[in-house]
Amino acid sequence: MAINGAIQPASDAEKKQVLQPFHLTATGYNLNYLPEYIALRHGFFREQGLDVTVNIPTPWDGVLDALADNSAIMALGGIWVPSMYRDRVQHYTVFAQIANRCPLAVLKRGSSEGFKLTDMAKSTVLMKSGGGASVGLFFKMLLRENNIDPRAVDYVQDLDGIMLGNLFQGGMGDYFITDNLSALAMVARNPNVSIAMEMVAQGDIPWSVYYRETATITPEILDAQKRFCIGLEKGIDWVLEHDAESFRDELAELFPSVPADVAVSVTNDFRNNKMWTSTSVDPQGFARWQQGLADAGLVKEPFAYKSIVDDAPAAAAQAAVKAAKQVK
């Protein structure tokens, strides 16, 4: 099974295999989730006895409803949600990570030569927000980390990303922050704009994680999570081992609305800049993001790693994948 891509035919062995249903609900469909899509297409989850299916609710916060009514075994999205909800509404436990870097880019009009982050002070920045608060949270954290007061910038961020992109190209604002894939696609179409900064190069952060309601976790769930992580770990390894040019056709099938050259370029950029590392949430990246969330007022103070993250399924998966490689 694949999302928005060609479905791979099951082998005779797979047809005979009894698979455990494993339904995932996700907040979006993004290139930074690529290893999951590769794991689906290449049968890495099926090898673990899991029949992984995915839905993307509208609006995105429907993922929480799917967890609450048990129609989904886990959710994929930003770790800021489990952090914000903890001790207020619901406890969620994060058990794996897919995106280790922020997949955003800053667009400006004209040439980006000589651009400095300090140039953005006293400017108007357009930021999409339809998929949640992550865009604004990360950008304002980046400003604070570089000793720039976020209040020195004016923001337009309560509109749809496509609408904001059109308005930016039409003359609204000074900068536009969107996902890297959309940014490169815009630059490919419009010679009057350029990419001033790719945030994938701005350090580790657990941008996209998998989580579930803490109270509902059982030994059976933990076992399924471990097997999911094995498949995902193999997906990450596969992407890191293959130059994007070598699977251009798959990228074209997965992202048909994006020029193939752009999809290849962004994928290799992500490969080279540690977008995908492993299924484990990095403790240092976690601490950095928690401080950003605290500074933004989403949490009273940064949470400790183990209060939100259970790394056991991911760690066990990595050990299993490593052992399998040694046998080969």
TrEMBL record:
Domain SsuA/THI5-like as annotated: residue spans: 30-244
Pathway(s) where this gene product acts: Cofactor biosynthesis; thiamine diphosphate biosynthesis
Keyword Iron: yes
Organism: Coleophoma cylindrospora
Family assignment from sequence similarity: Belongs to the NMT1/THI5 family.
Subunit structure: Homodimer.
Catalytic activity: N(6)-(pyridoxal phosphate)-L-lysyl-[4-amino-5-hydroxymethyl-2-methylpyrimidine phosphate synthase] + L-histidyl-[4-amino-5-hydroxymethyl-2-methylpyrimidine phosphate synthase] + 2 Fe(3+) + 4 H2O = L-lysyl-[4-amino-5-hydroxymethyl-2-methylpyrimidine phosphate synthase] + (2S)-2-amino-5-hydroxy-4-oxopentanoyl-[4-amino-5-hydroxymethyl-2-methylpyrimidine phosphate synthase] + 4-amino-2-methyl-5-(phosphooxymethyl)pyrimidine + 3-oxopropanoate + 2 Fe(2+) + 2 H(+)
InterPro entries on file: NMT1/THI5, SsuA/THI5
Pfam families registered for this protein in UniProt: NMT1
Top-level lineage group: Eukaryota
Protein name: 4-amino-5-hydroxymethyl-2-methylpyrimidine phosphate synthase
Keywords assigned: Iron, Metal-binding, Pyridoxal phosphate, Thiamine biosynthesis, Transferase
GO terms, biological process: thiamine biosynthetic process; thiamine diphosphate biosynthetic process
GO function term, MF aspect, one: metal ion binding
